[in-house]
Every structure is written in structure tokens, then in C-alpha cells.
Design goal:
Oligomer: single chain
CATH architecture of the domain at 2-116 and 328-354: 3-Layer(aba) Sandwich
CATH topology of the domain at 2-116 and 328-354: Rossmann fold
Distance between the termini: 31 Å
CATH class of the domain at 2-116 and 328-354: Alpha Beta
Largest sheet: 6 strands, antiparallel
Length: 359
């Protein structure tokens, strides 16, 4: 089987590189390494080769013609879809999967509608609320001139409505009064030019609940983010720098614990909520649901993440490892989900054609 590991990298840095590690004013928890996305994609391809697949990487570089020409030439059986944005627009992620659908190609991960819903945090929260799933109380600020008289309890966290990977979330995202709120809202409109979500900040434990599978889904061991090592002047959140900047203190002081030490009652409830979220929003293959467990033991869903990061040391793979799925096995299974899905769809179409449904 031939697998194309497809991504879109136009060589923009995720973070501002520091000149010397010696300039750090804290003790690193993780080993500091330069982030090179291309190497991570090659690592996935090499892993799939070890599983017996003819795998290769393809960077489309904001050029769909490169992808289309490659499919004509190499005729991959499965696209391992790692395209997360196009022309620097995360909201176009779903459009690439739409192209895969139109080309009748097997591909990994979430379909267009699931990506569209989860990319829109406003819509996601409203759907979750309609399903009886708790999410923090929130208000949408549609323009920078909107009134900021909101019926919410401080502190609040201020987020962009249409981003992922914690873009627009940092140490200043949690606000404690209307002046700080106004300043943060104006900053996000200046920086990202999109509606802003203001929601009540839930103090408590942060849980990452990974869900794995297609027709049969399972919840992997729950991971927790330990904020106890954060300096007092940093809010207990996982912002952009905590995820992507190995030279930032929050990258080293937001420490994962897997499996999370939870009472069985809480763990079972979190698993059920995660499954309901993933199935209701149409995610598949691999996903992650981020929750907060409040001090009074209530679970609030913060985000539903289709196609989360698959780096070996990232949250999803950490949970997979604790479920006894190795890195290589997990990637192979994701490819197999996509291939079997395509075979089933082709079989169903042939049956419909033979029955005269398709003319």
C-alpha cells in the first residue's frame, strides 16, 4: 500500500528562536530541541515504512497543483492528511479535505464538516450545550466596538473564535476586570481580526481525553496537565508558548501526568463525555477533548480537537502509549482506518449501482 504523508509548510516559524540556551532564567523540564516540522513528517513516513507501507512525504507549499500532480504520478492508496492550514488560514483546513472527498481519495482523520464545526468555537460550544454537555458560560464579542457589559463572573478567559493550536492564547488571556478585558479584546481584534469568545475561567484540573478509532472508538488513558510548577504570576492554562515554544517557561512548567489520578466515577464520566463529543461532532480516527474538572468536581468541556498533534511526545501519543499502542502501531492503525473506510464506501457504491440506485 502506498501512503502519502501530506502537509503544508511555507517555512514560517512557530516561535521566536532565542540565540542561546544559557539565557534561560529557569530550569528546563524537557530537553530543548529546535522544532523542525519537516523532520516530524519524515518520522511519520519512516514509521509507516517500518510497518510495511510504501510511504513518502509531500509538502504542498500552498500549491494545490503540487498535490494533484503527485496523485496522478504516484497514485497513493491513502493520504495521511496533516494539512492544518492553507494560505496561512486555519479555516481552509476543511477545504483541503473537501478536495480529497471530490477526488475520491482515502484519507486519515476528520472529514470536512467535523473540521468546520470544531474550527468554529462558537458553534461547537452551542452544539455541546444543546446536547447537555457542560461548557463554561460565554459571550461572543463580534466587533471591537461591542459593549463589554457582560453577565459573566470574573476571572474570564478571552479567546479568538476561529483559531486552533492555542493561537492567540497567552499569559494575558485571563482577565480580572473590565479594563483588562477591553485591552485583551482590542489586542485580539488587532492581531487576528475575528470575533472573540469571552468565557468564565474554570479553576481546577485540566484533563486531555484522547479518543481513538473509527467505527469502534475507545477512550485512551486520560492525561492531566500539572500547573503546580508554574510561577504565581502565570495563569494555569496551556497557551501557545506552552505548546510550541521550547524556550518559554510555560513549555516546561505545564507538565503532563498520564494516566491522570482520578476517582473511577470522575474518570468514567469524562470518558462518556469525550465519546459523546467526538461522535456528535463527527470526528474520527483520532481526536482529543480538553476538559476542566472544577473544584466541586464538575466537568466542563473546553475544546474538541480533531486531528490533534501526532508527535511522539505529544498528548495523544502519550495516552496511546499508556494504552499499549506503540507509536508505530498507532500510525499504522490510523492508515488502516482510512483504507478500510474507503473499501467499505466503494463496496456500498457498487451495491447501490447494481441495485439501480445510482444511474
Amino acid at each position: 500500500m502506498k501512503v502519502a504523508v501530506v502537509y503544508n509548510d511555507t517555512s514560517s516559524d512557530f516561535y521566536e528562536k532565542k540565540d542561546k540556551k544559557e539565557n534561560l532564567n529557569f530550569t528546563p523540564y524537557f530537553e530543548i530541541e529546535e522544532i523542525d516540522p519537516a523532520l516530524e513528517y519524515e518520522k511519520i513516513a519512516n514509521s509507516l515504512k517500518k510497518s510495511g507501507y510504501d510511504a513518502y512525504t509531500l509538502n504542498i507549499k500552498d500549491n494545490l497543483n503540487l498535490f494533484i500532480e503527485d496523485t496522478k504520478k504516484n497514485k497513493p492508496d491513502v493520504i495521511f492528511n496533516l494539512v492544518e492550514l492553507y494560505k496561512d488560514q486555519p479555516r481552509l483546513e476543511m477545504n483541503f479535505t473537501g478536495l480529497l472527498e471530490l477526488m475520491n481519495l482515502a484519507y486519515t482523520g476528520a472529514p470536512p464538516l467535523a473540521l468546520a464545526i470544531c474550527q468554529n468555537k462558537i458553534l461547537t460550544k452551542r452544539i455541546l450545550k444543546s446536547l447537555g454537555i457542560q461548557t463554561p458560560k460565554f459571550k461572543v464579542i463580534k466587533s471591537r466596538n461591542s459593549q463589554l457589559k457582560i453577565n459573566l463572573k470574573y476571572p474570564l478567559i478571552v479567546k479568538p473564535a476561529f483559531e486552533d493550536a492555542s493561537v492567540g492564547i497567552d499569559n494575558n488571556s485571563v482577565v480580572y476586570n473590565v479594563d483588562e478585558l477591553k485591552k485583551r479584546v482590542e489586542y485580539l481584534f488587532d492581531y487576528l481580526n475575528q470575533p472573540v469568545i469571552v468565557e468564565e475561567f474554570i479553576f481546577g484540573r485540566e484533563l486531555n481525553v484522547a479518543v481513538f478509532g473509527d467505527e469502534q472508538m475507545e477512550v485512551l488513558p486520560i492525561s492531566e496537565i500539572d500547573f503546580s510548577e508554574l510561577p504565581e504570576d502565570y495563569p494555569p492554562i496551556v497557551g501557545f508558548h506552552a505548546k510550541w515554544d521550547p524556550y518559554h517557561i510555560t513549555y516546561h512548567k505545564t507538565i503532563p501526568i498520564c494516566p491522570a489520578p482520578l476517582e473511577d466515577k470522575i474518570r468514567i464520566k469524562a470518558e462518556k463525555i469525550a465519546l459523546k463529543c467526538v461522535k456528535s461532532l463527527g470526528c474520527r480516527d483520532y481526536a482529543r477533548v480538553d476538559m476542566r474538572l472544577s473544584k466541586d468536581n464538575k466537568l466542563y468541556v473546553l475544546e474538541v480537537n480533531p486531528n490533534p498533534d501526532l508527535q511522539e511526545d505529544a498528548g495523544f501519543m502519550r495516552s496511546a502509549n499508556h494504552a499499549n499502542y506503540s507509536y508505530d502501531t498507532t500510525l499504522k492503525m490510523i492508515v488502516d482506518f482510512a483504507y478500510k473506510r474507503k473499501l467499505k464506501m466503494n463496496r456500498n457504491n457498487k451495491e447501490r449501482l447494481s441495485n439501480g440506485v445510482i444511474k
